[in-house]
Design brief:
Structural class: alpha+beta
Strand order of the largest sheet: 1-2-3
Radius of gyration: 29 Å
Largest sheet: 3 strands, antiparallel
Order of helices and strands: EEEHEEHEEEEHEEEH
Number of helices: 4
Helix content: 10-25%
Number of domains: 3
Number of strands: 12
CATH topology of the largest domain: Wheat Germ Agglutinin (Isolectin 2), domain 1
Strand content: 15-25%
Shape: elongated
């Protein structure tokens, strides 16, 4: 009998190795390469039949299999369509911005969702008035650039109209 951990069946002699990995290694005839992942085709973690297991070269390929499966189950063609992760709508791949962050080269949100939930545009450096002190320089919160303390103080004065008070000279009568 095998132990259950994280809803996976495990090899009794080795609690760290899943039964699905052990079966895939036996079918392959050697240990899996480093970084390889065993995917359950029907997404049932308890179904460890040889015909249900797919050996993925890395986690990126494993994620790609899941992404294409979701599109296929939604009734679409994974080669020309994609699911928006926000509105959950099946859309053409042209309705997604290009992005190097994702393995398929497209953003996870469609263009309409991205425009609604986009971050506000970066402020111009002349709008930057808040500061953090780092020694003699300050980090502008809006643009993230280190600027001299005098520059920040000058900008605060210009935007608020507050002028620096000069210290009173002591009048000494001689």
């Amino acid at each position: 009998m095998t132990a259950l951990k994280n809803n996976y069946s495990h090899v009794p002699r080795n609690k760290n190795k899943g039964l699905h990995v052990y079966i895939a290694e036996m079918a392959l005839g050697k240990l899996l390469p480093r970084g390889a992942i065993v995917h359950h085709h029907d997404r049932n973690r308890r179904n460890n039949l040889n015909t249900n297991l797919v050996i993925c070269q890395d986690s990126a390929y494993h994620s790609l299999i899941h992404q294409r499966t979701r599109v296929f189950e939604a009734g679409g063609d994974p080669n020309i369509q994609k699911l928006c992760c926000h509105c959950k709508a099946l859309k053409s791949r042209d309705e997604f911005y290009a992005s190097k962050e994702y393995q398929d080269g497209k953003d996870s949100h469609c263009k309409s969702c991205r425009s609604i939930y986009a971050k506000p545009p970066f402020a111009t450096r002349s709008d930057c008035t808040r500061k953090h002190r780092y020694g003699s320089e300050n980090l502008c919160i809006k643009c993230g650039v280190l600027k001299p303390r005098e520059y920040i103080i000058r900008q605060i004065r210009e935007t608020t109209g507050i002028r620096q008070r000069r210290p009173k000279r002591s009048s000494s009568v001689q």
